[in-house]
Amino acid sequence: MSIAIAIDGPAGAGKSTIAKMAAKELGFIYVDTGALYRAIGLYAYRKGVSGDDRDAVEALLNEIKVELSFNDKGVQIVLLNGEDVSGLIRTPEISMMASAVSAIPAVRAFLLDTQRDMAHTKNVIMDGRDIGTVVLPDAKLKIFLFASPECRAKRRYDQLLADGKEVNFEDVLRDVIERDYNDSHRDIAPLKPADDAIMVDTSDEDRDTSIERLLKIMRDHI
């Protein structure tokens, strides 16, 4: 029987990095659900469609095929209609698009079966906004990972600078706060901890400390 671990939390809390490292350590498959929404956001962006235009975004879904795969180096990549868009979906603009399109019921339904099928056939660690509350309510372990907005903005700011992007910290912080509000106030599957989730604050921890802490929690529960 497969084992599913759900990790939820706001943008920049370290979900993807920690989930990816923990999956490698435990021999699980890492499923980056946020990347799926980002890919849809990217497609809408390319088409000139606003993420808030529900009808227009929904009309695009029959043109989209989103997959998680692995390149020849064993690194997980995101395919949008066969194109590797892994590096294109991590910009602030696409982050905001992802937040907008993820509030659209048709988009969530479009991706729901894909996510559940992965969890039913493989041992997975899946991260996102509503994994423990909606996508995998029966997950073996649910974790809600969070950190202060300032801390998360600093991490994102440093990452963007390292990637050669020209950014302003105040703009990044404003985007983080805006996305938190959008994600937690949307009508469909808002960002919130599952009732039985373990709360983990990573504000004052570096990556290695957070990973070790999460691995201990996971091993204790599975």
Question: What does it look like?
Answer:
- The structure is a single chain.
- The protein is of the alpha/beta class.
- It contains nine helices and eight strands.
- It has a five-stranded parallel β-sheet, sandwiched between helices. Strands 3-4-5 form a three-stranded antiparallel β-sheet.
- Strand 3 and strand 4 form a beta hairpin.
- Helix 2 packs across helix 4, helix 4 packs parallel to helix 8 and helix 7 crosses helix 8.
- The protein starts with a strand and ends with a helix.
- 42% of the residues are buried.
- The mean pLDDT is 91.
Task: Summarize the helices and strands and which ones pair or pack.
Blueprint (H helix, E strand, L loop, with lengths): L3 E5 L6 H12 L2 E4 H14 L7 H7 L5 E5 L5 E5 L2 E2 L7 H10 L3 H17 L2 E5 L2 H5 L5 E6 L2 H14 L6 H17 L12 E4 L5 H15 L1
Parallel strand pairs: 1-6, 1-7, 2-6, 7-8
Antiparallel strand pairs: 3-4, 4-5
Helix pairs in contact: 1-9, 2-4, 4-8, 7-8
In short:
With 222 residues, the protein is α/β, with parallel strands linked by helices. It is built from nine helices and eight strands.
Number of helices: 9
| Structural shape | globular
Distance between the termini: 12 Å
Estimated radius of gyration: 16 Å
Mean model confidence by pLDDT: 91
